[in-house]
Amino acid sequence: MRRLLRPTATPDLHFKRKGDIIMNKKTNWTTTTVSILALCALLTLAACNKKENTAQSNNAPAESTAPPATPIDPATVATIKGTVKFDGAAPKPPKIDMSQDPACKGTNEAENVVVNGGDLANVFVYVKDGLGNRTFDVPTTPVVLEQKGCRYHPHVLGVMAGQTVDIKNADATTHNIHPTPKDNREWNESQPPSSADIQKNFAREEIMLPVKCNQHPWMKMYVNVVKSPFFAVTDKDGNYEIKGLPPGDYTIAFVQEKLGEQDQKVTVAPKDTKTVDQSFKAAGE
Amino acid sequence: MIIAGALVTSNDAGLSVPDWPTSFGSWYKIPKLVGGVKFEHTHRMIAQVAGLLTIILAVWTARVEKRRWLRILSYAALGTVIAQGILGGITVLFYLPPAVSSAHAALAQTFFCIAVAIAICTGRKWIEEQPRIEFDERRPSLFTLTLCCIFVLYVQLILGAMFRHHGLSWWPHVLNAVVVSFVLAWTAVRALTLYSQVEAIRRPAITMLSLVIAQLCLGFTAFLTRVAWGRDAVQPELPMVVSTVAHVAVGALLLATTVILAIQVWRHVPVALEERLPDAQSDASAA
Question: Inter-chain contact A37–B82, Cβ cutoff 8 Å?
């Protein structure tokens, strides 16, 4: 019995193996291959279709069916302003190496925590709660996002849902603009030098929506999409100002991309000008 | 191609060319190779050459190869490279979903293993060599162990790819590294203690063991540079790119070496047929 099982002198396929039985079956490989290819083609088609839909949605103007804005008495509106501080030793911003692209000239450093003499820049401040069911007109003027020196200007942007964002490329290189939202539609478009502006809008409210350039991986910025016009971004001195707020009780949120969110409750009376300062500690403290 | 793909991921350049199958709207124009485009478009060009070579391989094999299973293997290589291209396209069009990107990474190494298997089985040594048959009576058999190695390595590959593509945390990959090390060490020790006289087994077993050690070191380095030190990096830094790309490349070599070992064990140290086909034996005895 054992002798029968020994291999022959044939260089391969010396004796019968389980695999041989499988391989000798008349399997219709052509049908299988064609089916797989057809499935892949369908998936590709679906992908292209999704992309087109995405582009349409993002390029569409603000919906004209939006409810009319709730009237606000301009004689009673209040203002909230203040300064955002950073507690502790300011982190040294890391230098960015832009040698990957010779068109990216000058020096660049990370903007994830920008502190000037204890003042914290690029904090998004907005009315998080207290506006009730009020609705607001979406501004017809676009907000501008510029790519210059292979960095975004501004680094943190506030925009109303449906408001147009006008994206410019002032560099002598191609950028791609790629938002990676949680609640809005994702898109990714390249913008060569001297090309027309790209105009987009974001339909849903979303705070600290990251935008990046995959050609220059250090290029990152954040778009904040809100439903009301009551928002601001702190300047290099940590200052902000929110005007035209109707009297009431509000929750003001201060959001920093790395340090997180802090909220404050505030009550404003008619024609009030209230100072609301905020401070952030270094992450982990 | 695997290194080019790993460079794309490590440099976060996967979407630097936003369209597919065209590149910036063109089928043939080479864009300015700067920034992320340098990695992504180079990867696409290498993939095109690999696809072309695989078509030639499949046609050539179909025309001259007598062994049916080898012809099927070459068709499998062609099917894999086509599916790989389509997966690469889908992952671009869907903005790098972790599952698709991980499938793209895993299929790349599957293609590599198929190509290596074809190279082994069409080599002069394979054709001219008279196998030294030594029946394996230990259980689990060495062949079973090599299959286990391939399985745990494949799981490890998927876990690693899922981590790299932000679909999973790092710890399942690290945890499975312990399992991989154990199974591969067991297999290598078994192969080297029992069949060290068979060169076709000894060489891949030693290579596999060496690669496991190198891979563990590279994995540790990649963990340090990417996870521990590079968590807040504002851009991909050279140490993290080098360590992760080397980790992917050595991982592919390790998987291919294990496949070679499995093939050589299948050829040189078979399990006795009466144990693999008990029905056939009983039929023969009855007759």
Answer: yes
